[in-house]
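REVIEWER CHECKLIST
Item 1: Sequence provided? yes
Item 2: Single chain? yes
Item 3: Sequence as submitted:
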Amino acid sequence: MPRESTRSEPLPATVGAFRPTSDRYPSRSIKDELRINLMAALSAGRSGEVLFPGLVGYGDTVLPQVINAILAGHDLLLLGLRGQAKTRLARALTRLLDEQVPALRDDPLRSHPSEPIGAIAEELMRTQGDAARLHWLTPAERYGEKLATPDVSVADLIGDVDPIRASREGYDLGDLRAVTFGIVPRTNRGIFCINELPDLAPRIQVALFNILEEQDVQVRGIPLRLPLDLMLVFTANPEDYTSRGQIITPLKDRIGSQVLTHYPKLRSQGVEIMRQEAKQFDNHVLKVVIPEIFLELIEEAARAARTSEYVDAKSGVSARLTIASLEALRANVMQRGLLLHEKTPTARLVDLPATLAAMTGKIELAYEGEQEGPLKVGWHVMGEAIKSLWAERLPPVITEKDDERDKGPWKDILGWFASGNVLRLSDRSTTAEHEAQLRSVAGLVAATEKMLKPSREDLVLSMEFVVEGLYHGGALAREDSARGLAYSDLLAHMLGREDKRRRRS
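Item 4: Structure as written out by the authors:
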């Protein structure tokens, strides 16, 4: 457990007031602090899921490796594709920090009052002594983060020499008092994370290497001794090693542990992440209802995209795709509820096109996908999701038997469409209108109840699922419109398209 301050007593405000309590707040390195607090938590029976809540699916894979890295006192490289919670994991490490630790208030390096580090802290103690003021650092204040970009400079991360200040105050240019510190030294005695490390220019990586290895760095050719105490965490996408940059070998060699992250291995884990992360905006006006099958469909679509020939597998398919898709779906249902004055609007499969706007922008297409276009690829992976859920719940629509369609459970439904009927579903129809449209299909209610055995509340959605599944199973045709979907007989649709083609020619 992180060491907590005594709430009944005010925290010392000066070095003089701190001295009698110094045994309760000894100076120790950040890695020792993390290790000691982690050991206490593990001894208390706390697992990785408890120590790092919200990191779904990592309990048996990633988190044990992270725990090992902390126990070993290593800096950490989190390596994985986009949207695998690498930054979230880095931020979660602050849970292992002490609740509050003392630091000299006017020292940019945040020295412990018992062990002043550098010329600035030493001068503070020499000039102010016991009157030197303290600042009590919280875990949030001890975490620093920087997104690496090619234009990041040594000055941004480490600092820069101020020659005017040096001349005015009479400091040597190599004196720390002549330096304006960057974000890394100002996170001293804390955790510093650099996201997308390969995007950092090699010369900047060399500066980080010097801090890790020698605790010094050159700024404007002037060597500066920086005795920093840091836990460094880096994140990187393996594709970045060749597409945008690379981690220089000396730096990579000095990073103690490399941990590979991954996407959710189980659909249930992806659904849990969606439910955990997606924003909700329901209010007293209405309550949007999203049945569980939609979360499964969206997650399954993301899983299909990760293995699709149309999607660039090296870029990955972020979990943000599923989160944004669920939010877009909920927004479309909310819009219908507001327009039609329905208090509890429920999601329909005909609402799924609303997810494509959130989905297509988060998929990097391969060459084959570029030829098809993002919208068609979005429809494709959503169709693969429908097929996966159908295969788990129902037998194949068309089997090897030629007469299966005439004897199978869907014969009355297909016969209704073969008679020239068309089912038109809209995301702007009322709940009663939507149900009436589905019930107008001969045999649909009976077949759905027999094959899926849905509850009364799920019957309408199950009927819609059957129709959509018959389309993806090759038994029906479907046309998309701005506000809905139209299902018709497959043969009649193909003949109609052929007639139109002939007329145009």
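Item 5: Key structural point noted by reviewer: The domain at 15-260 is CATH 3.40.50.300 (Rossmann fold).
Item 6: Recommendation: ____
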